[in-house]
Amino acid sequence: MTLLNALAVASRCQNSLLFNRSEQWLTSKNPLYVARRFRTSKKTSKRPVLHNNGGFQKQRPGAPSYKRDRPAVVERPRLNLSSDDRPGIIKYFEENVQRWSEQKILHSRLSSFGIPEEDIRPLLKLFVSEVLSGKLSDHVAYDKYTLDRFARSTPEDLPQTYSDIVYTGILYAWAADSATRHAVESVIAPTTSFCIRRLFHAARLEHPADDYPEARRTRRKIIMHVGPTNSGKTHHALRALAAAPTGVYAGPLRLLAHEIWERLNLGQIVPAGVEEDTIHAPPALDSAFDVDVASATPPAVRSQGNPKFARACNMITGEEHKVVDPEATLESATVEMLSMAKKYDLAVIDEIQMIADVGRGFAWTAAVLGINAKEVHLCGEETAVPIVQALLAETHDELEVRRYKRLTPLKVDKSIDKDFRKVQKGDCVVSFSRNSIFWLKRSIEKATGMKCAVVYGKLPPEIRSGQADLFNDPNSGYDVIVGSDAIGMGLNLKIRRIVFESVNKFDGEVLRPLSISQTKQIAGRAGRYGMLQEQSGLATTFLPEDLSFLEQVLAKPFEPLPAAILGPGFQSSRQIARALPASASLRTIYDAHIYVSKTRPHYRYSSANIATGADILDQYSDLLALEDRITFLLAPAPWRDLDCTDFLRKLIKTYAEDLSVGVKALFHGTNYLETLIAVENQMSTLPYPKSDDKTLSSLELFHKLLGLYAWLAFRNPVAYHEPEVVDEWKPRVERAMLWALQGITRHLTRTQRNIDNTPPVAAMTHRVEFKTAGDLRKQKKAEALLKKETRERLGPVLA
């Protein structure tokens, strides 16, 4: 065991990934916005409660009911400052500094950063005086302290939260400046001044590009392929990759990485320079990529492979590695798994607009700055062009922007006016609540007799892909698909018309209108060129009053992304931890990145939610090294789901105490395996699928937690030594989820059941039609045996 422990410690991963972090709230004398945070997405029996505070309201939406008024939509307050308006920024800076300096949460944060209580008020008083005197906003100081950061907030930012970040950063830059040291030390102790300077320099990151010396040794050629959905913007990038001597594809989803991996190995991507393919295979209409599948000659992606085009390609994602050939010269990966140390001839970075995503944008920022390739193709939206231009101005790389237009027009159709009977074959109905999706599925099936596939974020990628296949297959009987904004990326869907059930989305804090980018990304999925007989896509709304919003947003140009996201890594966290008090928590370390770090205006550290995970991990600070706590925090763990808290605590404690974590022992005593075996019993004994929301939710979490273990196993295979058990259990969970999906939304009347004659889960079980009362008795008898059988079967599984 001593040797095992030593190996586990030695194999601890040093990957610099990202984190989640909760928003910090400021109070004020005239609060702009106060809201209650919901910790889970569980359904509640209570009706939404509206909180009126300063003219702003907040509610948690459930399944929509059109028999009563829908809850009011809350427009988030915004700073509404422009980088071109220096006087306006200076006015805001000077008028609000006094109120900011009085916030209790600010005093608490400064104390956690190591400033003694007796020095906080004198320091802030001097800072306010200097600001009001204009010394921090003259021509030189304006740029020195990057005041234009006040104008770079996003629609997701609350003014008081964002301005708190900017003010605190300016405070530290001013207090750490050698020119102000004498004045600062006249009101606070020299030791406090030293602590401020030490933390400021530890967190400082003005030139992120310098962290990638290998990429700086050559002048790269960057080619941006930008355009709306269904414009074929990835066509030329994929053909260039297939022709490159060495290259890598990096995308946001494991399914996209898998498709590229598969098609390159099979020779289904036609290399650049090939004008005619002797096989003459038709284009791959099932590709999830935005390629010109019909008009291009030859098409980039073919349905049949040509052995002459086949290239050995390996795949690496957060959860799985596929090595076809150790000497393979091509790779396909998720963006977080890109290697900055390897040298490539060509790299393709997909969905570049995600560079501003608060949860994962750090990986795209690192890819743009650090990928060591002679030629880099960036594919995505027009919104990313200005921010990429700003980043490349630092690296001095060559930039070429190629713009593409949509291959088929997108038109706004007449609202279906709350009438489910107007839902048609080929429609995709979009909602942003899991409960609403199932409610809509049942309502549409009842009103139209058509079956609905479903897609939403908590479903594993494999299940989402399977549901997409059902919808695309004209003989499956699934003529409509109901989904969330998960349809906007990574799925190939033959959508004729997008129907927005709502144009507002609950973001965890407030119900707010969709952004321009979100609306266009979703609506643009309609009418993929070459896949439908219609030569245009349609978008409409469920409610007539939402139609004007859709028309106005689709007519607007894209808004440029405000900043590229940075993510704290192990090295910066260690530096900051050394500059903080010894008792500093994990959350304080990340707060220092966000509030103290000095970056250029087009960068910002993510402020995604880490509160719950950090609080749990800090309870094990005596047992876990900082690197271990950061690794756990960056892992894809459902920290905010209260149903997983006990499991996550068990995982952390087991690792901390034993440095060895087995899957079977980890899940012993949980309800996840019991739920799986119960569903498998139903699959073999019941005449038709039967399930409920609780069962499906348990299976979703089970799959998520298995993915978490696989993620950890790739980073520390000695400690997490049973990945083969995960490989065995995950397909079982996915089959059970397919069964549960159909059971939770099956037709509720005998007539409707008789209409449904499609096997529920292909190659999994046969379907027995529900026709007689005897079938009901058989079902009840089978259900009575489940509890006993489950107990009997749990023993050998956990042995």
UniProtKB/TrEMBL annotation:
GO terms for molecular function: ATP binding; helicase activity; hydrolase activity. One of its GO terms (biological process) is mitochondrial RNA 3'-end processing. InterPro entries: DEXQc_SUV3, Helicase_C-like, P-loop_NTPase, RNA-DNA_Helicase, SUV3_C. CDD domains: SF2_C_suv3 (cd18805). Residues 43-71 are annotated as: Disordered. One of its GO terms (cellular component) is mitochondrial degradosome. PROSITE patterns: HELICASE_CTER. It comes from the Eukaryota. Signal peptide: none annotated. The keyword Protein biosynthesis does not apply. The keyword Secreted does not apply. Keywords: ATP-binding, Helicase, Hydrolase, Nucleotide-binding. SUPFAM superfamilies: P-loop containing nucleoside triphosphate hydrolases. This is P-loop containing nucleoside triphosphate hydrolase protein. It comes from Lentinula guzmanii.
